[in-house]
From TrEMBL:
Keyword annotations from UniProtKB, A to Z: Carbohydrate metabolism, Xylose metabolism
Any one of the GO BP annotations: D-xylose metabolic process
Annotated protein name in UniProt: ROK family transcriptional regulator
SUPFAM superfamilies: Actin-like ATPase domain (SSF53067), Winged helix' DNA-binding domain (SSF46785)
Family: Belongs to the ROK (NagC/XylR) family.
Gene3D superfamilies membership: 3.30.420.40, Winged helix-like DNA-binding domain superfamily/Winged helix DNA-binding domain
Transmembrane portions of the chain: none
Function: Transcriptional repressor of xylose-utilizing enzymes.
Highest taxon in the source lineage: Bacteria
Organism this protein belongs to: Capillibacterium thermochitinicola
Pfam families, per database record: HTH_24 (PF13412), ROK (PF00480)
Length: 386
């Protein structure tokens, strides 16, 4: 009897969770659609819809247009149930989005910083979080959680930043340092970017996606069979440290000749400095010179995109993705590099894998990882509810 009672409770919870997730996925849905979609009885759907409404998780959002039969009420997630913050901690800026419970973006913010020490960055993060809530007048009590994408490797529990080489951070317990009375979730920024593309960008409905985040380093977020692939020790996707020049320049990871040493924004700036002696130029300024057809800058861009292409070719050969999305500021010069990149990839990939892949540049600006982090927090909240 005891076992039966447990099973009944589990089934009840599962049915309610299924309904909540179906409302989220469909955005607006009627009871009849829920019944048909989930194969549940009309009574079961009606019972749980009432419960979810009483808990303020869903609300009535109008009436479906009549098609001759009975008109039916429509339901959606209650956007004001709670809010999440998705942040992307980059090496020189914080990018953030405020999402409502439906997952719609309510506010965005971006702040640049210079000092990368954790004791300098943490107070900035705290101010950023409070400011972003204030822009939309969201009370602290309505904040369901905070997700932070970081340019580095996390421990197995995703609670501590083991190593973020481009920030110079080792063993940083960011949630503890923030000391906020809200859940804080961490994820590698490239993984977060991949999830952002799946939820908000070009990666919708793509089951096998490689998101290549090109910044001061290169990270890859991998969606395999519709799920984020993290690897045995949450360390998957570190293609940035794939050797492309056996006797090449040293990398921060300790190896030499890594892909990110030749194909990242830092690589472009190093090559440009070698050509011109100009060490002060920023990456946006470098891209501007490329747009202005500056000879040195465009030469460097072609070299970098050649390396970018040969690395992407290896990713494609190894993973056979349906889509590769390149994210980062390099996406701003897509027209200047798309053809040469495609040529490089075509020459170095297996025919079948090349024929089956789409190469895209992110259309989310620099928000992919922040959006992905907001989504991760929403998922955690829904998991906890159901
Ligand atoms: Zn390396």
């Amino acid at each position: 009897m005891f076992k039966k009672a447990i099973n009944q409770e589990l089934m009840r919870t599962n049915n309610k969770a299924q309904i909540l997730r179906c409302v989220k996925a469909k955005q607006v849905v009627s009871k009849r659609e829920l019944t048909e979609e989930l194969g549940l009885s009309t009574t079961t759907v009606a019972t749980f819809i009432r419960e979810l409404e009483e808990e303020n998780l869903i609300l009535n959002s109008g009436i479906a247009r009549s098609t001759g039969g009975r008109r039916s009420l429509l339901y959606q997630l209650n956007p004001d149930y709670c809010y999440t913050l998705g942040l992307d901690l980059q090496v020189d800026r914080i990018v953030g989005v405020l999402l409502d419970f439906k997952g719609d973006v309510q506010a965005e913010k971006e702040v640049a910083f210079q000092g990368r020490d954790e004791w300098q960055v943490v107070p900035l993060l705290k101010t950023f979080i409070h400011d972003l809530l204030a822009t939309h007048k969201i009370p602290w009590a309505k904040l369901g959680g905070i997700g932070i994408g970081v340019p580095g490797v996390l421990n197995n529990e995703a609670e501590i930043i083991d190593f973020a080489p481009n920030l110079g951070w080792k063993n940083v317990d960011l949630p503890a340092m923030l000391a906020l009375d809200k859940p804080v979730y961490l994820e590698n920024e490239a993984n977060a970017g991949a999830l952002g593309e799946v939820e908000f960008g070009l990666g919708r409905n793509v089951g096998h996606l490689a998101y290549i985040s090109v910044g001061m380093g290169i990270g890859c977020g991998l969606i395999i069979d519709h799920r984020l692939f993290s690897g045995h020790l949450r360390n998957a996707g570190e293609f940035g440290h794939m050797t492309v020049e056996p006797e090449g320049l040293p990398c921060r990871c300790g190896n030499r000749g890594c892909w990110e040493v030749y194909a990242s924004n830092a690589a472009a700036l190093r090559m440009y400095a070698e050509e011109t002696g100009n060490q002060q130029i920023t990456f946006p300024e470098f891209l501007l010179k490329c747009h202005e057809d500056d000879h040195c800058a465009t030469n460097v861009l072609q070299t970098v995109s050649k390396y970018l292409g040969l690395g992407i070719a290896s990713v494609i050969n190894g993973l056979n993705p349906e889509m590769v999305i390149i994210g980062g500021e390099i996406a701003n010069v897509k027209p200047l590099i798309f053809n040469s990149l495609l040529k490089e990839i075509k020459e170095r990939t297996l025919e079948k894998s090349y024929a089956g892949v789409r190469l895209e540049f992110s259309q989310l600006g620099n928000k992919a990882a922040a959006l992905g982090m907001g989504t991760i927090v929403l998922e955690q909240i829904i998991n906890a509810l159901t």
